[in-house]
Structures are given as C-alpha cells and as structure tokens.
Amino acid sequence: MEKKNLFLYFVLLAACIGLLPVAQASCLLCLPPAKRDGGSLRYGLDDSKDKSKQTNGKTALENFQDMKFGLFIHWGIYAVPAGEWKGEYVRGIGEWIMHRKQIPVKEYEKLAEQFNPVKFNADEWAQLAQDAGMKYMVITSKHHDGFAMYHSKVSDYNIIDRTPFKRDPMKELAAANAKRNIKFGFYYSQAQDWHEPNAAGNTWDFPEQRGPKPYVEGKALPQVEEILRNYGDLALIWFDTPRLLTQEQALSLKQKVKELQPNCLVNNRIGFNLGDYYQTGDNAIPTMVYDWKAWEIPATLNDTWGYKKADQNWKDPHDLIYKLTDIVSKGGNYLLNVGPTAEGVIPEESQKILRTIGKWMKVNGAAIYATSHTPLFYPDITWKCTAKPGKLYFHIVNWPGTQLEITGIESKVKSAYFLANKQKVKFEQKGNKLSFSLPAQPLDPYNTIVAVEVADEKTKIASGYGYRDTQKTINLYALDARIRGEEQRYDWKSQSVSGFFKAENPKNELWWYHHAFENGVYRVDLEYACDNDVAGSEFYFYNMKDEQNKFAGTIQATNGEFKVFSLMNLKLAANEENRLIFGLTDNDKSAKMRVRRVILSRVEEAESKN
C-alpha cells in the first residue's frame, strides 16, 4: 500500500474515535460529521482524484451511483427449513432461523446435507436481473450462519465440501453476469458467524466472552481474499453487522479489498465510517432528499430476505416502482432482494414482479439511470422528480386529474413531453408556477413521466421551494414509512396503512426515517381513520433517539373518516437520523385503524438558531 494512503487511513482512524459500529441487520446508523464537497459528502478515502480508479471517465463510486437499481440475493442452507423448525413456524426473517431458535451448530450443520439446488441456473438468474432493468447483483457468499456458498479452502463448511451439489454457483453467476455487463458483488458477514466460537452472535453454543482476533485472522480475512481473487472483477463487497470488531480489524478488511481490487467498493456496514458509500437500515427510505453521501437502500420483495415458504406478502409492483422512483429522486440506489429456494429457484411470484418492473424500466429508464435527486421540495405524494443537466423528469405517481401545478421553477421551460411516447404536453409558465394540462387518465398505471427541458443546465429554483429550504409543514405519508410488521398492509385508494395487530419481532409499527436539514421544534399531528366499534386502543409515538419522551394516546372513533389529531412537540436535530415510530400497545382492538400521515408543523417561536 502507498505510504500516502496508509497515512490517510490512520488519519481517518483518529477522526472516527467514538463512533459506534452497526448493531444488527436492521441497524442503527449514525451520520458522520459533515464534510461537504460540492453539495455531497464522501467519506472513507476520497478516490475522486485517483485516475487508476476511474472507468469511462468516472470513479467507481460515480458509476455505482449511476446504476441506481440492483438485485440482492439471500441464498443459503437456511432455505432448507424455509421458516419452519420441527414443524413450528418461526416468526421473522428466514435467514435468522438458527439464531431465533438457537439451533446448536451440530444440528444446524446437517442442513447442508439436504441442500441440493439442482434447479439452479446462473444464466436464468442473471437474465432475470437484466429483464428487471437492474445494473448490478449482490449475493451472499457467507451469511451469519457461517456457511460459505462458494468453494472456500479456508473452511470446509461450504457448498462444495458439505452438500451433494458439488458445484460453485458463485463461479457460474460471475460468468453469467459478465456476459450481460451486469456488475457483480458479494455480501460477506464479516463479524457475525454463528458457526464460530470467536465470532459474534452464537451465545447458546459458545461462551459469551470471546475475542474476535482468531476468527478475523483465521476465517474472515482469508475468505474475503478468496472471493476477491477467484471471481473476477467485483463491483463491491457488501459487509454487514460489525459486532465485536475493532477499528483496526475493520480497517484490515478494507485494506485487503483495496489492495487486491482498487475499484471494488466497500459499504459502510464494514463499520467505523470506513465505507465508500452509505447504507440506510433495511427497507428504510429517508423521508426527504438525502444528499450527504452516495447511498443505497437494501429492501425486500416480501417480508423476509432468505426464502420462507409461508411468506406470501408480495409487494405490489405499483408499490415497488413507487419506491424505486422515490429512492432515486432522493439521491439513492435501490437494492431489491429475492430469496431463492433450496432447489435453486427464484420464486415465480418474485420473477413476475421483477419483470413487471422491468417493462416499466424499459420505457422509463432514462428518468432513473444516471439521474440526480430532485432540486424541489415535495409538498405531498402526487409527484416525484429526478434530474439531468438541462432536464427534469416529473414522475406522476398519484394521478391528479387534468391539471398539475409545480411551484418553484425559475428556469425557462423550453418543452414538455411524455417520456413513454414523446407526445407533447401542454404547459403554461407564469413566474415560478408551471402548470401542465393532462389527460383524464394516466398513460401508465404506476408512474407516468413528464420530461421537461429547461434553459439552464442546472435548474434554478425559487427561494423557499428548494429541497433544503426551510418548510413550515412537512408531511410524512404512510406510503413513505417503513412497514415493520408481517400483518400490516398499504392501501393505495385510501393512502393509508392498517393491520396494527399485536406481535413481536417484528412489531407492527410504522417507522419514518427523517434526516432533518436544520435544528427545529415541530408540532406533531397524526391523521388516521377508525371505525367507531374498534376505537379505544392505546398508541404511542416517539423519536427513537428520545424514547423517554414517548407520547401515549388513545385511538379515537372517527366514523371511519380521516381526521387529524394533535400529539406533541418534537425537537429535531440537523444532520441526524430521527426515527419516528407509531404503534399500538398491548391492546390491539384498534388494529384495523388506518394511518395516513404524520404532519410536522414548525413552531417558529421555538426554532433553534444554530
């Protein structure tokens, strides 16, 4: 390693003292101190001026940001029990079954003998990704259960040495993706390994007191080296949950990646703010534009990641296309997961959903790939916006009827047309108000895009309408919340979520991830509807950072109509994740109530001046 880079690493270590590593798959992530550069923050080592790391005139990170949409695959021997253990349904995500049931290592190991994915076809998987409009693929090389899904020489606990399959599917996938120019990367659980006594996670087989050094040096580092050396050029290594690891151990993993493949990116779940880019929590979409750094959202097609046969809660393509649009319009990438069966088959429903998204992407991909986030603030959930130099794409996701007005654009609009068929759209621009004349029905049932060409390369936005401008009111819609539980459902017609039934792990809650741009105090109102005969349950609302100030209330009868109720005042801090949570307490009589949105109204006299 060059001395200059080594010096920068140690400078970084000194700067990171006190930061906490990610705690679990649905992790708490804190923002690093802002270090702004041209409107976006880069952290870890800045490779923007390193020409050796550039392809097509762009850095590896810039190319990653341009791809926008990727396929995540969670596949392992946990697909054999498929969410059941000894005839019992196990709540929660499928790949955690060993941990949830505290299955002894010797007993869990036997699953490998039953794992024989004879229907696996790498070309079919890669073609599915291409059909969906995805530009990269990330697959689990080793998850927390410790089983390697490739031929590892470091540990015989792997797919070649322990299963009847006797093939390395990762070799086949690397080749299949390369043929289609789909970038390839590996998930690797660097700290949690329930098969190993010195790794994090398994407290039922091994003593709680342990030191990770033998595991890191004896398994994690050499296995990371194996996947870097033996599977061609990798776009990224996707690390996860750095429990127990020291900064030096996390740094050694990153150094190994950069030493062997300088263009291979590392995500921030490596720990200690060492990643090349940032991940939100699982399925955790920010409520507003998130422009501090390059970022990605890992998300699921149903509730689980690894295959779970009872989980048929497939998300509607409408919902997923909305989420893709929303994430990209806020500056991020969308990494959407499938969980193949133990036979090596991606569930048919997953395939249908992905190909439906792909049909939409084939027509509308120009408004997704290589775009930047919206320059405008979103007042509601009628439209989203992505941008390119001299162009704006308005994604109309909830059809407004024959008129749509956008306020805040000062640049002269030269033309407007539907992206799907290039048909001109009538518009009128007066001052900073832009009005479109639309047909009564959308061209596309999910998302109709109006492309707008403007006179300026960077669209000029009027004061007060920019995505970072102070807003008196911020609407946090149920559509933009993370739906945590297995029983909850979103209804497009009423734009609300219901199904708040009593459950644990996970609870049926709504989580909003609100990254405030400035300090302030806001009044919190809640809009919901509840039929009279099911009213009366207790509910709570709070910011996870300030749980001791939890609001407790009672669900009121509304005759089934949506009404707004005032809850509390809430202080929000700039540049920090404010995780706002709604749920019912033990009495779930009101489970079928419907939550539409949380309304944050700025309390001007209490505003922080910092």
Distance between the termini: 42 Å
Sketch the major β-sheet. Answer: 8 strands, parallel
Coarse morphology? globular
| Overall mean pLDDT | 91
Strand content: 25-35%
Helix content: 10-25%
Over the alpha carbons, how many angstroms does the gyration radius reach? Answer: 24 Å
Q: Give the structural class.
A: alpha+beta
Count of individual helical segments: 12
Total strand segments: 32
Report strand order across the widest sheet.
11-10-9-8-5-14-13-12
Structure at a glance:
This protein is about 20% helix and about 25% strand.
Tell me what you see in this structure.
- The protein has twelve helices and 32 strands.
- It is an alpha+beta fold and 610 residues long.
- The strands form nine sheets. An eight-stranded parallel β-sheet has the order 11-10-9-8-5-14-13-12.
- Strand 19 and strand 20 form a beta hairpin.
- The longest helix is centred in the middle third of the chain and has 18 residues, at 213-230.
